[in-house]
Amino acid sequence: MSTNNPARLLLCLVIICHGLLSGMQRPLHAEMPSPPDIPFSFQVLPNGLQLVVLPEPNAPLGVVTSLFRAGRRHIPLANSNIPHLLEHLFFSTPDSASNTFADHMHRAVGTGCQFQGLTTWTYTCYSSIVPPDVLPWLISLEGWRFARLHERFPVRWAAEREVLAAENWERENDLPDLVGLGMQVGSGLPDLSCVDSLVDPRTIALPNLDPARRSLYTSQRLTVVVAGPVSPAAVATWVAEAFVGLASSPLSPSPPIRPSGLGLTPIRVPSSRFNGQFTITWPTPERFSPEHPAYLVSSYLLRMAPELVARLGTSPCYQEFLSEHCFLDLQEDSGLHLLWGRLASGTSAERVAEQYAKLLTALASEGPTLPELTAAKTQWQQDAWLELQTSEGRTKLLGLGAALAGDPAAWQREWAAVAKVSASDVQAFVRNWLTPAQATFLVFVASETEPRPILPDSFPETSFPSKNLTFTLPPPNPGTASIHITKHERFVADNGLEIWVLEDPYAFAGQAELIFPSGVGADPSGHAGLANLTAACLSRSLGMGQPSGETGPICQASDDGISFQWEGSPASLALGLQRIRSLISDWPFSDTEVEAARNGLGIKTDLRVISLARLALFGPNHPYSRLPAQVASEVKTITPFALASYSLRLQPRGAALFLSIRPDWKNEIKPLLSVAGAWPETASAAIPRIPAPSPVVPGTVVCFEKPQASKLTINHIWPGFPGGSVEYLALDAIHEDMGEYILSSMRQSFPIYSCTQTHSLWAGKGVGLISLDFPLDRGGAGVDALLQVFHKYFRDLDRRRNLVRTLTFRNRFFLGKLTSHPQGKGLKMAIRAWRLGVSLEELLAHGEYPADEAIKRVFPVDPDRLPGFFLLAGPKDAMQQAVEAFKRAGTQYIPMGVSKLDAALNPAENTIESIR
Fold first, then answer.
1. Are strands 754-762 and 656-661 parallel, antiparallel or unpaired?
2. How many other CB atoms are there within 10 angstroms of residue 133's CB atom?
3. I need a labelling partner for 374 at 20 to 30 A (CA). Which of 313, 570, 636, 651 fits?
């Protein structure tokens, strides 16, 4: 839970950026480079608290991360949601006479703080990003919140249980429940007749909260990490004063559960919630243990199980089953490996167990190939390196070392250990840890007695006329069942503002989102920073002044719009809209305030990521495409007058306001609707739109020269279809499958350093990327082989049939997410439909379109003419060899001239390290 959740999209875009300019980062060979040196101080205070300080004199922001060695594994399964519930209560506001806590929280948001909480099996983590001058005050607030956590139990306990139940209804949040179940069953524990009740957070009793808090949340179990322009001595004084009240308690937590495993014989468990699913869990080494690096490498090999199965000659039935209905997940902190899946039609659990036993036996006897091992180690090092580029990532990594191993530098030993892992080490790991005997295999079957469902999955349907469609929708599949959606209304005010009102009977607070279609691409010069700096200035003023316990609006900018999100009571929603309107109209920001927003912009919104995402979407020759250093330089030239002028483009006509409210609030939101309808239109220049780019001709080959690069990177970029459409899901499935196909087809003959595939949504459309790194002397041969694999892939009818099955499963899951508990989902559905220009009914009907037809619409008509374009990065000679290979392949490939990066730019700005 977070009071200011960072967008997951930016994390995906970082991966895209890594692929696009991967030639800019350090070389990743079988010999991994030494980890960067991170200076820190470490001490244990008299009350047992561990303190780690990372002095960063030039850091623009400070970070405070608190880790408690208190996770779900320390609590019996019937109450395993308690740590997560305590995390929610930590951030919630007490409904008491004293509003001190609420005042502190609003002050924090007003100063630009970002809060985030995370609960795992072994620890609970709270992280805050703040301006450096408020670090002492924030540390004091952290101690104040922990010491008074119990004050929020009586008044917020019931409400937060319901919120937690809503979160747990998501598939990804089922996993901790299933992991815990596997651990306890493997230890010969509980009665499995009421699984659904065991994992329902609403069964947590109020009297259980305080004993858990006093036994788990003590100074002896706490590690605090502080990074920023601070001295260790000063931080030690602040922390000692703030956390003095967190002394130890005579109560002891339940000992962590260590499963022993019951073998791969399926154990059938009655459950209406998980019916049709299965889990396989293995106890594996905990993080920072000597065996842990082998565990990490082995996990990546298991992620490539379809290719391994094919190479080892196992039944193709298993490969089809895994790629369509399973995924693997790692519980690194708890030392547990999880396989989750849904039984395919006609597939027995015994057959699944048989195939896994064969796979593990083969891995233990043959081990990974050198390319497989190199790819796994490379991926691990890339992930670790990216994490170390942010202060938040560094504080968490060093904090985990201190909390779990008693040494902040434990991650360095792990880094060195991963570099030394050999194929025989992985074989030994499989023989010792991932054995059939140590597995626990649970298969969930329908319960004879239907328990009370955690949340409903359908709501009354209300129809309304749709707008003109922006793309052609196919007819719905008559063979699928009708889907009910959230009750809602939609109308247009006299000033042109479109208003959507959605009913949410489970809401504890109203939600609002206001979107202006005037984003990063709305400046005629393609200035990427104008909208982002406008949003940054507005965000700095919108966090203050809300009623007690409610959150002020947050402003964000993207390539296709500027949006405001806030929540609270009907009166608070109206006040938030009024403040947004006043700030946009008056623009009261001084030069000093604009400069303050500018200084924090690079970290808060990451314009460099945006620039590279646009490079992928629009192509390198589009007038709006920018390299990271160009964007960073342009932001420095924006004047307050330019921002004030830009804000005049934020007009009600063409914008949309989305409200999610309780059904009994219809009369109470009338003041809000009055504010929205009275927003005056002012004369302003027409909002320029992103000019239609000269579409990048399929087959175009673009080259970026990197004289010092030690490898040649070849990227295939495929702009996709509107987000939410079934074609978008199809392209996502195709890209994942294509990356696996390319890697399995080429790794036997080429020393590929890495192969990365990703698919993300940007500017309303999907962007697909496949990136391969070749040795400098194999670029030409690599292109020859790569093109052959591409053409073979698009002609492979069996592969296409497998994709149809995969997409059918993903499409159903996509619709299931849209139509599950509406808290927050109805709002997202409405926004997606508005962006596409369709109604909710049409959006869902479009999603039900048959998968085989969607695959046909996405696949190229002519397999010899590939979609998308190629982007090469590396030394000029190596790229020339690759370009010659493209020329030999035919006239459908159009090489462009080589573009050399601007030598006047700071070299540090042109590296992957500068992206985060």
1. unpaired
2. 11
3. 313
How many Cα atoms occupy the beta-carbon half-sphere of 7 within 13 Å? 20
132 near 478, Cβ under 8 Å? no
CA distance to 629, 750, 788, per residue, from 745 (Å) = 37, 10, 10
> How does strand 712-722 pair with strand 765-774?
antiparallel
Q: Do 700-914 and 263-445 fall under one CATH topology?
A: yes
The CATH number corresponding to 263-445 among 3.30.830.10, 3.30.565.10, 3.40.190.170, 3.40.50.300 equals 3.30.830.10
Helices (H) and strands (E) in the chain, counts: 31, 23
Q: Is the pLDDT of residue 170 over 70?
A: no
Tokens of 846: 């479009």
pLDDT tens-place string over residues 525-557:
556 577 778 888 887 777 544 444 445 688 887
Over residues 405-412, the mean pLDDT reads: 90
Q: Where are the domains of the chain?
A: 40-242, 263-445, 496-677, 700-914
Q: pLDDT at residue 183 above 80?
A: no
Which of the residue ranges 240-244, 363-367, 630-634, 898-902 has the most confident prediction, judged by mean pLDDT? Answer: 240-244
Backbone phi, psi, residue 625, to 5°: -70, 140
Q: Kind and range of the H or E element at 705?
A: strand 700-705
Answer yes or no: is pLDDT of 868 > 90: no
- Cα→Cα distances 906→497, 603, 633, 635, 710, Å: 44, 18, 10, 15, 20
CA-CA distance, 142 to 125, in Å (whole number)?
12
For the CA atoms of 215, 220, 222, 225, what is the dihedral angle to 10 degrees? 170
pLDDT tens by residue, 146-169? 887 887 788 777 777 777 765 665
Map 307-327 to HEC letters.
HHHHHHCCCHHHHHHHHHHEE
CATH number of 496-677: 3.30.830.10
Mean model confidence pLDDT for the chain: 70
pLDDT in tens, 600-642: 665 434 454 455 556 655 666 666 666 655 666 677 778 888 7
Q: Which amino acid belongs to residue 276?
A: G
The single-letter DSSP state of residue 437 is: G
- What count of Cα atoms within 13 Å lies in the side-chain half-sphere of residue 518? 25
User: What pLDDT sits at residue 315?
Assistant: 42
Question: Which tokens hold the place of 41?
Answer: 């101080």
Q: What is the pLDDT of residue 44?
A: 93
List, in order, residues 6 or more apart from 169 with CB less than 8 Å away. 454, 455, 820, 821
Residue 890, by phi and psi: left (phi above 0), alpha (psi -120 to 50) or beta? left
Other CB atoms within a 10 A radius of the CB of residue 243 amount to 24
CA distances from 256 to 17, 121, 180 (A): 40, 10, 11
The yes/no answer on whether domain 40-242 falls in CATH 3.30.390.50 is no
In terms of DSSP H, where are the helices of 421-489?
Answer: 423-432
CA distance 731 to 741: 15
Q: How far is it, in rounded angstroms, from Cα 353 to Cα 343?
A: 12
Helix (H) or strand (E) holding 741: helix 726-746
Task: Look at residue 327 and give its three-state secondary structure.
Answer: strand
- Distance between CA 298 and CA 425 in Å, rounded? 9
Q: At 171, is the secondary structure helix, strand, or coil?
A: helix
Longest Cα–Cα distance of the chain, Å, equals 78
